[in-house]
Write a structure and sequence with these properties.
- This protein has helices at about 60, 70-75, 80-95, 105-130, 135-155, 180-200, 205-210, 220-225, 230-235, 240-245, 265-295, 345-350, 355, 360-370, 375-380, and strands spanning about 20, 35-40, 45-50, 165, 170, 310-320, 325-330, 340-345.
- With about 375 residues, it is an alpha+beta fold.
- It has a three-stranded antiparallel beta sheet.
- The chain is globular and about 65 Å long.
């Protein structure tokens, strides 16, 4: 590997650009990501994200599993959004089959997707301040996460990888009294969340490290296909829950509010996450009310012993917590997909670093990287 250096002879002192490798990091952090930076003093000249350290070939593994087995693989690429990842697969297969899912399952899926969104956002609301030296917020965030985590675990038996979606509905019905416990957990989060917000947004050091730092324009967002909270923080008003409603979102338009900002900086991205937690909480309350009104009925559809999708292709995309998550399914009428291509949100969101980091200070790079809200498994697939 050769490194090109530019020498300066001004003042009789030789100087050169420095190549700095950030990472690859241990999986206990954001994941195994490497950034190759070329620096001029303390300022970044070029930045190259180098990915693939966690690549496990999920798309090829999909091709040798049947449609029931794929779900357990699909929920792992973004380990903070497991339930939402499962949705894309089952929605694609159900669309190929022309299957109508029971109403009770549709509303329960919507409820669980929004609870999963809250869990995802609370993780970043707690971990991002760590990037700029604030340790305390993560303890508040995990307190709130645990309240939601308990009801998710009670329902599915899993803390991270729920495996609760099924083609045609959900694994099983909601336990007795579970909706009441969800309502209590969400109410507790609503009452205590201002403590976390005041701790972070009232801190002038946090504001100084994030306001005006790492700004992304709407044009850059569109060029790189960035989506989710990062895109909306730059004024790109896109949300599939509103623009192409799936599940029960079409009936929740009066509750669903798409949060957007205009500055596109680190502070705006963090602010969008905070407000989206409140929107998701309101959507959860609406879903709970609807499920309490619905009569008892089936939560899934009876399937044949060997499930085969008819020959053809389809594309199913959802508004995952980190952005647009899509599955392009090609079937040849077998019990396994011929091709299943995954479009993950984090992959596009991380590629824009090559455009936004040049010109920034190395000290600000950490704050910018943390504000991109990515999961490396979602990048590498």
């Amino acid at each position: 590997m050769s490194t090109e250096q530019t020498l300066s002879t001004g003042g009789g002192i030789a100087a050169s650009d420095m190549v700095l490798n950030i990472g690859p990091q241990h999986p206990a952090t954001h994941g195994v990501l490497r950034l190759r930076l070329v620096l001029d003093g303390e300022r970044i000249v070029t930045a190259e994200p180098i990915i693939g350290y966690m690549h496990r070939g999920a798309e090829k593994l999909f091709e040798v599993r049947d449609y029931r087995q794929i779900i357990v693989l699909a929920n792992r690429h973004d380990w903070l959004s497991a339930f939402s990842n499962e949705l894309g697969v089952v929605l694609a297969v159900e669309r190929m089959l022309g299957m109508k899912v029971p109403e009770r399952a549709v509303w329960a899926r919507t409820l669980l997707a929004e609870l999963n969104r809250v869990l995802n956002h609370l993780m970043f609301l707690g971990s991002y301040p760590l990037e700029v030296g604030a340790i305390t917020p993560v303890f508040y965030a995990f307190r709130e996460r645990e309240a939601i985590q308990e009801v998710m675990e009670e329902l599915s038996g899993g803390r991270m990888h729920y495996m609760f979606n099924r083609v045609g509905g959900l694994k099983e019905d909601l336990p007795n009294g579970w909706l009441k416990r969800v309502r209590t957990a969400v109410l507790g989060v609503r009452e205590r969340l201002p403590q976390l917000e005041n701790l972070v947004f009232g801190n002038e050091i946090f504001s100084a490290r994030t306001k005006g730092i790492g700004a992304l324009s709407a044009e850059q967002i569109q060029q790189f296909g960035v989506s989710g909270p990062i895109a909306r923080a730059s004024g790109v008003d896109i949300d599939l829950r509103r623009d192409e409603p799936y599940l029960a979102y079409g009936e929740l338009q009066d509750v669903l509010r798409v949060v957007t900002k205009s500055a596109g900086d680190c502070f705006s991205r963090f602010s969008v996450l905070r407000e989206q937690v409140h929107v998701s909480r309101q959507l959860v309350d609406a879903c709970v009310e609807r499920l309490e009104e619905l009569p008892q009925g089936p939560i899934n559809t009876r399937l044949p012993k060997v499930l085969k999708a008819p020959e053809g292709y389809t594309y199913a995309w959802t508004e995952n917590p980190l952005g647009i998550n899509g599955y392009f399914l090609v079937s040849r009428g077998e019990k396994t997909p011929y091709r299943l291509k995954l479009r993950s949100a984090s992959f596009n969101n991380i590629q824009v670093l090559s455009e936004m980091l040049p010109g920034q200070l190395v000290a600000d790079m950490v704050a910018i990287l943390g504000s991109m809200f990515f999961v490396v498994g979602d990048v590498d697939k």
